[in-house]
Amino acid sequence: MEINQTILDQLTSITTQVRRDILRMVHAVNSGHPGGSLGCAEFFTALYFNVLQHTPKPFSIIGKGEDVFFLSNGHISPVWYSVLARSGYFPVEELNTFRRIDSRLQGHPTPHEGLPGIRIASGSLGQGLSVACGVALAKKLDQDSRWVYTLHGDGELEEGQIWEAALFASHHKIDNLIATVDVNGQQIDGTTEQVMSLGNLRWKWEAFGWIVFETDGNDMKSLLTTLSIAKNATRKNKPVVILMKTVMGKGVSFMEGKHKWHGVAPNDKELEIALEALPETLGDYPSFN
Amino acid sequence: MKKYIAYSKNDTRSGFGAGLLELGEKNPQVVALCADLTGSLKMDGFQKLYPSRFFQSGIAEANMIGVAAGMANAGLIPFAGTFANFATGRVYDQIRQSVCYSGKNVKIAASHAGLTLGEDGATHQILEDIGLMRMLPSMTVVVPCDYEQTRQATLALALLVGPAYLRFGRPKVECFIPTDEPFELGKAQILLDGTDVTILTCGHLVWKSLKAAEVLQDAGISAEVINVHTIKPLDESAILKSAIKTGAVVTAEEHNIFGGLGDLVAGVLGRNYPVPMEMVAVKDTFGESGTPEELMEKYGLTTENIVKSAYSVLNRKNKNSF
């Protein structure tokens, strides 16, 4: 598949702004999860600005006739909020309210406060794949020909429910679903290897009956190519999963590859250093403080 | 006041199965999921007639709840069925996050609740499920008393938009709610008017409470029997009205003494109009193997115990002692 260089440049430029948003959001409230968010900036940008057929306004929670996305590892909400705002679901100024009282941008995403773009709560891990299976089956019943996407953390694959859903998707031939896994090899207590070895993920998913693709999740060109190939592999009676190798904290030199940055916000000095390397591309949202 | 008589015996789970089957015909949005207990839940009729709307989940209840949440998000009305123990405690977090907090229109159909599950023993006899479910914000909790009421409650819950928990049981029990008696969600059902003591009850204990009222009547005591089939939202005004009239309250339920109907009623009375009260419930213990009748006897969920509790509250009422 040929990818137009202009599109690639545009998307890459958006990721830089998304990374700035993530850092500024978590810094402002001195809490949140920058590591995984930064590592998934390319994925979210690719998805919302290139892959999904979706309608930000008016947002429909049912999503009939649209591609729908479910974030299962809800703690990387900053990257999702940034991309949702930047793609028109809600005003970018609202990113200021992240994790503050009376906000629609809760620490972990939820439809409970009515934030456009969010269809299910996530935070307690391992639940999103099941939900996506339900939506995918409902789309089939409804003869809706669009796709369902998910994202999961690799550490999240330690949850048993993921594998219940993996069996279920395969058994029910859910072939309008593309699950993706952020394989950054890091979780709160250390590397996934130290905390709970995941073994060969390709073999595991294949053994559960899935079609598996692997890609560099921080390389926009590889990512777009793989997302396109994966889509072509759907509608063949099998669910599809993409294992995306990413670097936790990608784009911020002192955060890259370090599990310490899973859930810690940068201080003033660290923010300054980080933002210097990430020039504004779409314009920062105006800050409250 | 209409006198309720037993006209046959049937299990409440069959009432659910019949209701679900009717919904299959009436409402194309209704789908069903089951975790390898399709026959036990009496969902096989729906499965046979509407195979494209029935989803076998296998022995994986957490996933089933998540799938149901997804289906509800897409506008369907999923009924997810399994035994009450696996439908609540085992999947509490899935119900909390993916269903209630996410505002999904999922109906949880929970069979084999309580001691009357019988011989399988305590692993399967959940006595905490009402408490677990009623603590969840936005969850509606319904505990119908017989076959007909379970059938009607199933139909009513399909019309309700929002998460709901429907609790029913395994054994064949008395059918006494006439088929022409409408079920009103959220409205306590006064089965017998009385003036001396109020018996508030739900599920399998409703029939036993009516029997207890007969015993009391023979002794010249007028008992009011109210079927609180909707545990949440609770019909507080009906409960208070009766408590104010009689000044003495007994609750009776097939549940732990903590977290169930008794607890809720005590809260309502305590906040508004304290009267002497007794609770007929399982006294914070697990069940065990045995026949349903043996277990109800051993754990005190009997007509005799409801009568005894009525005497106890009447005694305290007459002494003006709490």
Tell me briefly what this model is.
The complex is a heterodimer of chains A (289) and B (322). With 289 residues, chain A is of the alpha/beta class. Chain A is built from ten helices and seven strands.
Structure description:
The complex is a heterodimer of chains A (289) and B (322). Chain A is an alpha/beta fold and 289 residues long. Chain A has helices spanning 5-29, 34-39, 41-51, 77-86, 128-141, 160-171, 192-195, 201-207, 220-232, 268-276; strands at 68-71, 148-153, 177-183, 186-187, 190-191, 211-216, 240-245. In chain A, helix 1 packs across helix 3 and helix 3 (41-51) packs parallel to helix 4. The longest helix of chain A is centred in the first third of the chain and has 25 residues, at 5-29. The radius of gyration of chain A is 18 Å and the shape is globular. Chain A starts with a helix and ends in a 13-residue tail after the last helix. The model of chain A has no long low-confidence stretch (mean pLDDT 97). The two termini of chain B are 31 Å apart. In chain B, the strands form 3 sheets. A 7-stranded mixed β-sheet of chain B has the order 3-2-4-5-7-6-12, with helices on both faces. With 322 residues, chain B is of the alpha/beta class. Chain B folds into 2 domains: 10-174, 3-Layer(aba) Sandwich (Rossmann fold), CATH 3.40.50; 189-318, Rossmann fold (3-Layer(aba) Sandwich). The chains are: A alpha/beta (289), B alpha/beta (322).
CATH superfamily of the largest domain in chain B: Thiamin diphosphate (ThDP)-binding fold, Pyr/PP domains
Give Rg of chain B in angstroms: 19 Å
Strand numbers in spatial order across the main sheet of chain A: 1-2-3-7-6
Largest sheet of chain B: 7 strands, mixed
Distance between the termini of chain A: 45 Å
User: Architecture of chain A, according to CATH?
Assistant: 3-Layer(aba) Sandwich
Low-confidence stretches of chain B are none
Beta-strand portion of chain B reads: 15-25%
CATH topology name of chain A, in short, is: Rossmann fold
Total helical elements of chain A: 10
What string, H for helix and E for strand, traces the elements of chain B in order? EHEHEHEHHEHEHEEEEHEEHEHEHH
Tell me the total number of β-strands of chain A: 7
Q: Largest interface here, residues on each chain?
A: A-B, 38 and 32 residues
